[in-house]
Amino acid sequence: MSRLDLSGLTAGPAQVWGAVRLVPLVRAEPVTGLRLHRELYEDGPGTVQADNRTSYTSYLPHGFVADWTGDGSPAASYGSQLTEGRGPVACAPLHFPRKLVQRRRGKGRPSGGAAGTLRFLPLHLALDGYLALHFGGPSIVWEEWTRRAVYAGLTPRAERAYRGEAVPGLDDALRVFEIHPGQCGVLLYVADALAAAFVVPHPDDYRALHASLLQDLYGELMYQYALYGGPVPEFTTRIAAEYISSLAQLRSAAERRQQEWAAQHAELMAGELLDESYAAREVYRMGQFRLSRFLPPFALHRTQHIGETITDGKGRVAYLKTFRLSDKQVRRGHVLHRLAAHEWHLGRTAEAMGITGEELARRIGHLGFEGLLKRHT
Predict the structure, then answer these.
(1) Strand 101-104 and strand 116-120: pairing?
(2) SS3 of 34, please?
């Protein structure tokens, strides 16, 4: 279990539009040796063939391409814009990748060391990890489980999410908000609930990918917060005029207020993301960088996020994208973890949870897994 290391990123002044609050994340120095850009797909829904026996069907608005160099030299972001003399092309004709993570070969690879280019689907790594949670079902054939549970496991698993364009106010917020100098990420709040975190290695990458937040996936709770939540207040600060007698003192006071805001934000608003411990699984190694996905401990009555990262050799986050789970999704993960820890034995699992076997069976049915249990349980 490990925490997210956002060293080098500082929270800037928040900007508010209705129920949406954006907190910019600024780097003093960009991450060298790694760049990100986006590929667009003509058709949204599609199927990815993960292996010979497994396929993954979901909405595929766009993919991310990571370019890296093996010697730490600056990497260039290839293909971030297509032009024909009249501005950027809205959509490029591309094929769906065959895997959630796919090494790209051929032209356009950066030079130096063990350089390369990798294509992956943003957030789909994280969602695939959540949907595959204890996917195999019971490890021992207890009498409470159906034949389907033993031989087919938890298939099929499905979750509902909303495209960013459907979240009320997000389109306008991204259009009118200022992008700060050195900005390499953003924390997105809806009704002051953290909906998503997005971090990239370089300010140019963020400028190119800022609008891609509209193609990302958000939980149903965030959609409801944006739809029914009222405007959130702006955070303002005051500087006592009686203590200011020069421009240097005014500048120093303003810098202290900025530092106070960044510290308060990390402790209060973003604490639910940064203070949590996650179980990370490495998906691909790119020289000194590691592409991984992570899952929370699925603790009840706590806000939980899943996500994916690219970290450098010291474990610092160069790329981050998260998805906030609903309470029901957290309860699914919690029950599955408990069942797996006790070899899917209902009696022992219920005893460890401090409830009866009948109550555990009721919860399993309520969470959408009723087809796995025999009727007499």
Answers:
(1) antiparallel
(2) strand
Cα separation of 348 and 203, whole Å? 52
Q: Is 272 exposed, middle or buried (0-12, 13-18, 19+ CB in 10 A)?
A: middle
Provide the token pair at 95: 């094929």
Q: How far apart are CA 9 and CA 185, in angstroms?
A: 8
Q: Give all strands (DSSP E) within 18-61, no chain letters.
A: 20-27, 34-40, 45-49, 55-59
Cα–Cα distance, 209 to 197 (Å, whole number): 13
Q: What is the pTM of this model?
A: 0.80
Q: Which helix (H) or strand (E) holds 187?
A: strand 183-190
Burial of 169 (0-12, 13-18, 19+ CB in 10 A): middle
Who contacts 141 (Cβ-Cβ below 8 Å, separation ≥6)?
150
In 10 A of CB 235, how many CB atoms? 14
What would the two tokens of residue 144 be? Answer: 């409470």
**CA angle at residue 132 from 126 to 137, to 5 degrees?**
160
Q: H-type helices in the chain, by residue range?
A: 124-131, 147-152, 170-176, 203-209, 220-228, 247-264, 271-274, 327-341, 346-353, 357-364
Q: Say how many CA atoms lie within 13 Å of 349 toward its Cβ.
A: 23
* Cβ partners under 8 Å of residue 356, min gap 6: 350
Q: How far is the CA of 321 from the CAs of 217, 279, 343, in angstroms?
A: 11, 15, 33
Q: Which residue has the tokens 């259009």?
A: 175
The structure tokens 């129920």 sit at 19
Residues 135-171 pLDDT 10s: 888 888 888 898 888 888 887 788 888 999 999 999 9
- Strand-pairing partners, residue 289, are 286
Tokens read off for 341: 């820890």
Three-state DSSP class for residue 217: strand
223 Cβ neighbours under 8 A, 6+ residues apart? 162, 166, 167, 168
59 Cα distance to chain centroid: 16
Give 86-145 pLDDT, tens digit per residue.
333 233 232 333 345 555 554 444 444 457 788 888 888 888 889 888 888 888 888 889
